[in-house]
Amino acid sequence: MATNQDIFLRPLSARHTKPHPLLHPITTHEIAWLAGLLEGEGSFGHKTARKNGTSYITARVTLEMCDVDIVTRARKILDAPAVYARPARKAHGNDTYRIDISGSKAIAVMMTILPFMGERRRTRILACIDAWKGSSHRPHSSATHCLHGHAYTTENTGRDKQGWRYCRTCARLHARQAQHRKRAQRPADWQPVPRPPKTHCIHGHLYTTENTYTRPDGERQCRTCRHAQRDSIEQRYGTAPRRKYVRER
What is the DSSP letter of 243? Predict the structure, then answer.
């Protein structure tokens, strides 16, 4: 029978998953407790990687110890992805448990616990923060060109649903390349399937001569749906509808 520990303990080879949202805000007592724990058992560092000629600096905070209950509590406070179990390295040793956080979350933790840390840990944390600030990948918003050299002008800058900035020129090039790959996968005798003419509206009314209304801009509309929309507005507001809802004669 699985215990509560078996639910969140994973081997070190397991892949990281999306962190769970915080269940409660961190209190001052938890910050002080966490600072004391990381002062003795934690480690702070950063690693550098290069991609497309750009340096990426990622900060990292690690906690590893033998007490699984302490590591589990720290995981909940830090919102770490999981607790990882490491088998004992020696025959007489004990199993250890580890949590890791990286990126901007690790920087936030470092800045939060910095006033509580000793001189040695404070120096290490400040070195990690300075390296992260000096990375050419951070802050991304200060970059004037994308990785392919296109300038971030007003016309060439777009925003996705999460608010991240992207290069419109690169987006168009990627879309064009994807379209070319899709066309290259088609057989030689491929022919587009003609779309059948639309005979009914979205509500199933037949487009007959009497039931079809052509707007001044050339768009075709169903008269039955237009009349139903007009009646619904009159019933809802009790006033005459606007001109565009007037019944056609």
Answer: G
What pairing do the DSSP bridges indicate for beta strands 83-86 and 9-11? Answer: parallel
What's the token pair of residue 7?
Answer: 């639910």
Beta bridge partners of 222: 212
> With 0-12 CB in 10 A as exposed, 13-18 as middle and 19+ as buried, what is 136?
middle
pLDDT band at 9 (very low <50, low <70, confident <90, very high): very low
Q: Partners of 184 in the beta sheet? A: none
Residue 112: what residue type? T
What are the residue ranges spanned by the domains of the chain? 4-138, 199-249
How confident is the model over 177-222, as pLDDT tens digits?
A: 999 999 999 898 888 888 888 899 999 999 999 999 998 888 899 9
Asked if 99 contacts 82 with a C-beta cutoff of 8 angstroms, the reply is yes
- On average, the pLDDT of the chain sits at 80
Assigned architecture for domain 4-138: Roll (3.10)
Q: Which of 129, 31, 108 lies closest to 74, judged by CA?
A: 31
Contact 11, 95 (CB under 8 A): no
State phi, psi for 86 to the nearest 5 degrees: -115, 125
Is 62 in contact with 47 (CB distance < 8 Å)? no
Mean pLDDT on 122-131: 88
